[in-house]
Amino acid sequence: MSEAVSMAPRETDRLLQVTMGLWFGLLFIQPFEKFVAVKYLLMVGLLIASLPLAMRADIRQRLRSRNMVLALALAIAIWCIAVSVASPYSADSLHALPRDLLLQAELLLVGCLLVRNPGQARTALWVIIAGFAAVSVLSSFEVGAYLMHHSLSEGQIPRSHKSFWGGYATMASFCLPLIIAFAVSTAATLRQRALLAALVILGVVLTGLYGSRSPLLVVAISVIVLFGLLRAWKALAAVFLVIALGAGWVASQSNLGYLEKYRSLAQKDTYVTNQGLSLRLDVWSGVVELIEARPLLGYGYGWKKLAWAINDGGYAERWKANDPGKAAYFLGETEKASYGKVNPHNYFLQVAFEIGIPGLLLVLAFWLATFWLGLKGLVRGAPENQRLRAVLLTTLLAYMLGNFANGFWVGGLANMACALVGILIGLALNEQSAAAVESK
Q1: CA–CA separation, 41 and 31 (whole Å)
Q2: Closest listed residue to residue 313, CA positions, set 325, 324, 299
Q3: Cα R_g (the chain), whole angstroms
Q4: Concatenated DSSP letters for 264-330?
Q5: Whole-angstrom Cα distance, residue 287 to residue 345?
Q6: Separation between Cα atoms, residue 353 and residue 288, nearest integer Å
Q7: Quick one: 276 exposed, middle or buried, by C-beta within 10 A (0-12, 13-18, 19+)?
Q8: In a 3-state reduction of DSSP, which class is residue 387?
Q9: Residue ranges of the alpha helices (H) in 30-117?
Q10: What gap in Å lies between CA 61 and CA 57, rounded to an integer?
Q11: What is the largest CA-CA distance in the chain?
Q12: What is the spatial distance between Cα 54 and Cα 69, in angstroms, rounded to a whole number?
């Protein structure tokens, strides 16, 4: 009998290790655009491993803790399910829920329920960095192989979602702020910081070659905010100097080829005109028209059905006849929009399209509560967690900034953001537990 009792904790500990291992595996693979099947296998494995842990008293106690971010996350999940059932495209929405929402829920819940100390949180960040490093090295091979036979003057370096290079700049807009914040905010050794610095340089070069403007802008703003949070004024001055030198170099070049678009970052029209925003105003106004038709419940979870809503609602014919700007993006040369080929290009419009204005309000409340939780902990939290919070907040800020011109409500960036929010909640719950023990 005593042997059976003594085995239970060891079995639970092994299960906990397996669960954390699967969670780390999921975090490592998120920076990859590829390996979708592996991601889902890990997701199913994590679900199977974590369900028995939910029976533990300490896990149930953490779930019952008063935490506004966790409560809002639950409300968002319930609302997503409800509007998906009521959706005119319910089959598509109910298929998307386990594929995307379940994965985000797992990453968030494991972060807040099983991350019990700063060491585990730092390990999670190292795992994400390692995944991005792998993507960076593989992308550099692809880019290098192309440049061995071509020059930059020939045009944009080819990229597709079948390559490691495809989507690299988007992932860099999230991971580079994370790496920079991690390097300057944690107790990393000199060797670790040197490796992180090399990765940052490689990442910036690859992002620059990618030819996408917003990722570099997101990285710059996030790093400026980071050093402001840390009150590292000398480092902040160095950042402005690097930005000035980079802008000066771009201005001094007579011909940048497909990288000419970087000159527009210094022009006001880039941020306020349709042309400067790569025709985003046409895209956004088109999505607003659809939202106005179903403002309360939206069209159900999942963005790919945007094409169906355009076609079924008669927007395709109307835009083709009267609105060439919208037709150019949503329809192209065809008469109908294609499923999965068009998206809202804005996080907030995407959320409103999928789950309605009430859902958007819940999501906005979730992010406000998340940043409030992080900033409150940054000021009043345990000293050993404060710099870790600076890393998390900087990275989440980068994620939100990247969502103004794009919509990363689902996918790798959203999944990693959910894990970071989970860690942020976990740090707060750990401090609450410690304070409760001390008060007894």
Answers
A1: 16
A2: 299
A3: 23
A4: GGG-THHHHSTTTTTTHHHHHHHHHHHHHHSTTTTT-S-STTHHHHHHHTTHHHHHHHH-HHHHHHH
A5: 9
A6: 8
A7: middle
A8: helix
A9: 36-53, 57-63, 68-85, 90-96, 102-114
A10: 6
A11: 82
A12: 19
225-283 per-position pLDDT tens digit:
988 888 888 888 888 888 887 777 766 666 666 667 777 776 777 777 777 677 788 89
Local structure of 331: helix, strand or coil:
coil
Q: Integer distance in angstroms from the first to the last C-alpha of the chain?
A: 34
Q: Which two tokens stand for residue 152?
A: 């930059």
Distances (CA, A) of 201 to 163, 223, 320, 423: 21, 14, 45, 27
Of 425, 293, 417, 268, the C-alpha closest to 347 is: 417
Alpha-carbon span 15 to 113, nearest angstrom: 14
SS3 175: helix
Question: What is the residue whose two structure tokens read 């076609």?
Answer: 311
Structure-token pair, residue 232: 């590292």
Reported for 59-64, long-range contacts at CB under 8 A and 24+ positions apart, including other chains, are 59/113, 59/114, 62/112, 62/113, 62/429, 63/113
Quick: pLDDT tens for 282-330.
899 999 999 999 999 999 999 999 999 999 999 999 998 888 888 888 9
CB 89 within 8 Å of CB 149: no
Check pLDDT > 80 for residue 46. Answer: yes
